[in-house]
Fold:
Amino acid sequence: MAITIHFDGQSVAVESGSDRTVLDLAREAGWHIDAKCGGQGFCASCNVLLGEGRYRVFDEEIDVSPEQRREVLSCQAYVRGDDAEIFLPRASVISFDGARIADEMDIPEHTFNPRFTKGYGVAVDVGTTTVVAALIDLETGKVLSRESLYNQQILKADDVVSRISLCSEPGNLETLKELVVDHTLNPLIHKLCTGTGIDKKQIVHLAISGNTVMMHIFFGVSPASIGVIPFKPVSHTFSSTAAELGIDARSDALVETVPAIAGYIGGDITSDLYVSNLSGRLSVLIDIGTNGEMVACLDGQMTACATAAGPAFEGAGLLHGARAASRAIDSIAYNETLDFELTVIGEPSPVGLCGPAIIDFIAEGFRCGLINAMGRYDIEMLKREDRYESICGMHACMLVAPELSATGESITITEGDVAEILKAKAAIYAGLKTLLAELGKTVHDIDHLVLAGGFAKHINLENAICIGLLPDIEIEKYDVIGNGSLAGAALALLDKGTQQDYLDLIEKPEIVTLNQTEHFTNYFQEALAIPNLDESDFLTRGQN
Amino acid sequence: MAKNEALYEAVLKGRRKDVSTIVHESVDAEINVAEILMESMIPAMAEIGDRFSRNEAYVPEMLIAARAMQAGLDILDPLLAEAGHKPIGKVAIGTVKGDLHDIGKNLVAMMLKGAGFDVVDLGVDCDIEKYREAVENGVQVILLSALLTTTMPYMKEVVEALKNSGAKILVGGAPVTQAYADEIGADGYSDDANTAVKSAKDALGIAA
Ligand code: B1M
Structure:
């Protein structure tokens, strides 16, 4: 034998190495194991099955027989000896196929007055999960091409705080920086240039927009201070040259960031704010994502916060959750007969469901009586329609039968999954309500609500309102913008005046520390129900 | 014994206004305050905790019930103090330095109170000194809560500093695991509010 890693019908042999985790061995074999907590042993996203062999798992030595495979955390498992069989479950492997990444942008009207009038510029949106780059001709102002990729840092850890934690160990900051520059941005530049026939050495200016932690790591600066109170960044802006950072462009090309507002409200939000054209007396910008940043603007006075919703909307932490990529269910419609009408990204047979689909599921379930205000199922209805399953003692609804899924197992939604989504949506709604309360306003006073971020583009707004994620106001007051962060970076290339506008803009919002407000906890608890315990908030859409 | 069914149901279903109204009515009717708490409210919280352990209730339901329970406790607490209620042990709970998350910690505190403990709430952002002071004031068990992977390492420092203080130290919070608790040498770990009560009892050798 030898050490053999099996996945999806293929087997790859790897060299042993007792100092390397099974997770690293699987990566060497070419499969990217999902390690949401950064391989620290806190979560179970990197689970694998150990076949015959000797292993050490945490501090225990174990022998596994061929008949009795053991499920373990691959980040905490080491092979002892020369022979081992390791099986990777589909759910633990990150697929880069068909990822749906928001790369459309609307650049608002602007003066064309670039700092560099010859050569090319690259605008980059560095997200925690995805990176998008656009190549711009600085002589004409035309956007020539756009490309996107997963931020390769997701191989190390999922959310920004886990990445901050990683950086506390020597060498990790450099590794994370390499993952985003060498393994994400440089390949994007390569694609942009080969696609358009342009020489990389003609790139003279790069503008980078992203959250504050991503910007620190990109410029090789430790984000440690953002991990602890008072969450102060080392700097709100960074600039350097391509050669200094190892970016494939002319060596003296200027690389600069869109300035950040605060430790958890980054340059991506500055960009969104600048391009979103907020109008009316009271307007709000919300980025529905892991950090749930938002800014409210009342007659020019601004407040901002980050609501820490968590990654549930990206499918994380849900039994059959999936990123919005190939084979993810992305919309669901049904009534009390529970005949689910599904759409799937790319391929016909699904592996799991992504955020927009679970919002649909809860909204439709609430309307037809399958799900009550506490997020609990009508078990009788599930049984009557042959949809009932019990998983680890949890009631679950079978969405896709085993023979119709790509995994050969049924795709289900447990009551625990619903509870996770309720926590995430409660954090966002409560953040919004608190922000407005600080201005002496309520959700009903909103004149204009702009949704930013890749996720917002794909949700059904009525359903998001129905579950109480977004406020019950007229649909006409909503606006969904494309990738505002990318547009903000593009503007920095196209008009040299914007950088000063950004610097002025970041001074405006007053940061609301949610824990220190009187109302947040109460609003959060009220918002855990569907749509909300405060019925006066959901008068038009709250009835089921 | 007089279990007030309506009050029990109101706590269980998380109907805060109903809880306040019924508790006020009961107090006005001069019903024994300890009885209101012990016979109706605590059994309701215990029931929701048990359902949680059986995967029949989740965090949202539990928090909503706890909120209703708190509304009742706000009325009863001062009256109970007057009545000289005897607790089963003295514990302190606090979120560690750098961390301001307290929703989970408050839920644990409430379940501990419900189980009959005298609970000292140290609040959030607690440094070693704060915990040490609590021990000096007669606390037998310290519960540490952390919600951030960046603040969790502080638990290790607290455990080390208070190793010989005589108090037992229990740890918990979303990113904390049994393996981590063992690694830092904590006296116990629990992953939810219900099992936290059990750990606290175990630590003091109180039968469940
Ligand atoms: C023995 O002793 C014991 C035993 C058991 C114990 C115990 C002690 N303590 C807890 N338990 C256990 O029993 C309880 C009941 O079963 C359980 O308690 P929990 O606390 O786990 O559960 C509660 C009942 C309900 N859960 C919660 O209350 C947490 C929910 C989420 C949404 C959350 C909230 C609400 C908040 N947040 Co925060 N927040 C998130 C959370 C994401 C999520 N979807 O879960 C999380 C925890 N936050 C996070 C972050 C990053 C942050 N948050 C921050 C702020 C906030 C709010 C102010 C907005 C608010 C807190 C309000 C408050 N007063 O507590 C910031 C930090 C503030 C600070 N210094 O603490 C900020 C740093 C960033 C930001 N965006 O502002 C993330 C941590 C990621 C990580 N890798 O560490 C996070 C997972 C969301 C995310 N972005 O992914 C058990 O853990």
In short: Residues 434 and 517 of chain A are 8 Å apart (CA to CA).
